[in-house]
Design brief:
Layout lengths: L11 E2 L7 H9 L4 E6 L3 E6 L2 H9 L3 E2 L2 H4 L1 H4 L11 H4 L9 H7 L8 H6 L1 H21 L4 E3 H6 L1 H11 L6 H11 L6 H24 L5 H10 L5 H32 L1 H8 L5 H11 L5 E7 L18 E4 H4 L3 H4 L29 H18 L4 E2 L21 E3 L7
Parallel strand pairs: 1-2, 3-7
Antiparallel strand pairs: 2-3, 4-6, 5-9, 6-7, 8-9
Length: 420
């Protein structure tokens, strides 16, 4: 079957290296509530940037997340086999399921993220944060210039240790899983790199499933293995949902902590409001989620029928790919005013964001991420009140990911006043 003319159909080609997330988001927002774009690999889609339109689409009964049922390019085999983003439509998880399948896949995960269980994790997260800050101090002491990478040693490790405990991932598997997870969210890979990454992820998951089948525990992986045994999940869904919990529970919160720290260090007036107690850490977390959505773009959604009765006047045809641009949504001036680009923990609209999605797809781990963010920031700035960036913000390289919005590293000095 001949492939459709994917290339040169769209006015804006998204940058797979994500060199300027907010510059691109602003340019797309200027084109209207949604704009036609071209994804890496020449695949056409819509980028949806208007908060009201996003809310409507996220609850619309004719909008699906399941490419296997509702994306003709995928169903008909027109999508290039080596498309570098293919893993995001191949996977069968609660994040890509539609209708009854979404409820079926969500059910085994809900107990792990109940309010009671999340609150009970606070002491463990506080203990982990204290341990990591000890490690951070030791690493800085060993560095000749006192510079240490805060992302590697703290921002990523706190959520990683938390989510691996929830999933039941043995410590011996941590490094391999974390390395592959980082590659999965990289969107400028070559087709060969993307294929190798997917194969390695499958191998690691197969090993973990065998282990959890033989040595069950009180954890998410075991709950999913049990659901598979009961016929509630097939083998692909079992593996993919374990991976989804690890990736979503790790990377999103790492990006939240990452951007909160950078924003506070570059806005000392905002930091002073938080450390003095005049503004709670919860407002810092919410403003960070708005200002720097941890997930910049979510792949993807598909109309099951033409969506045409839309207040924006737009029509989304059956089977077109829709990407929700959360980076653009969080800075919409119609919601947040003319200073929407500014980080301001006192703004009245700090909680009016969609960083955790909306409606039936609202993130199961939202409250856990918020809790980790509050604990991480309070512990970090209590322990190191003179913390400072060791480089200018122009030297903080972004993650090469259309999906995850964070930095490759955050070089800091823990005792900044000693180096001024």
């Amino acid at each position: 079957m001949p492939s459709p003319p994917f290339r040169n159909r769209c006015p804006h080609r998204l940058d797979g290296s994500a060199a300027d997330v907010h510059g691109e988001a602003g340019a797309l927002r200027a084109l209207g509530p949604a704009a036609r774009v071209e994804l890496p690999g020449g695949v056409p889609a819509w980028s949806v940037t208007d908060p009201g339109l996003v809310r409507r689409l996220l609850v619309h009964p004719w909008i699906s997340k399941d490419a296997h049922q509702h994306w003709p390019a995928f169903v008909n085999g027109d999508l290039p086999a080596d498309w570098p983003l293919r893993i995001w439509v191949d996977i069968r998880t609660v994040q890509t399921a539609h209708g009854p399948d979404h409820s079926r896949l969500r059910h085994p995960l809900v107990p792990a993220f109940s309010t009671r269980r999340v609150r009970a994790l606070a002491p463990r997260i506080e203990e982990t944060a204290a341990t990591l800050l000890d490690d951070l101090a030791r690493e800085a002491a060993l560095a000749p210039d006192g510079v240490v990478d805060l992302r590697t040693w703290f921002a990523t490790q706190l959520p990683w240790r938390t989510v691996t405990t929830l999933v039941g991932l043995p410590e011996a598997m941590h490094d391999a899983f974390q390395g592959v997870n980082d590659m999965v969210f990289t969107t400028d890979l070559s087709p060969e790199q993307a294929s190798d990454t997917e194969a390695e992820a499958a191998r690691l998951l197969a090993d973990l499933i065998v282990l959890k089948s033989d040595q069950p525990g009180d954890d998410i992986a075991t709950a999913l293995v049990d659901a598979h045994r009961e016929g509630l999940l097939d083998e692909r869904e079992l593996a993919d949902n374990i991976w989804m919990v690890l990736g979503a529970g790790y990377g999103t919160t790492a990006n939240l902590i990452d951007h909160a720290v950078v924003n506070l260090l570059t806005h000392p007036d905002q930091l002073d409001l938080a450390v003095s107690g005049r503004v709670g850490w919860d407002r810092v977390v919410e403003e960070t989620l708005r200002h720097q959505a941890p997930v910049a773009n979510f792949m993807m959604r598909f109309p099951t029928e033409d969506v045409y009765d839309e207040p924006t006047g737009l029509t989304f045809e059956r089977g077109e790919a829709l990407v929700v641009n959360y980076a653009a949504v969080g800075r919409d001036p119609a919601v947040h005013g003319s200073r929407a680009e500014v980080f301001d923990v006192t703004r009245p609209t700090v909680r009016e964001h969609l960083a955790f999605s909306h409606g039936p797809t609202y993130c199961l781990g939202a409250e856990l991420a918020r809790l980790e963010g509050r604990i991480a920031l309070s512990a970090l700035f209590s322990r190191f009140p003179s913390l400072e960036l060791a480089v200018g913000t122009d030297r903080l390289a972004p993650l090469p990911s259309l999906i995850f919005n964070g930095h490759r590293e955050i070089p800091v000095r823990l005792e900044g006043n000693k180096h001024s």
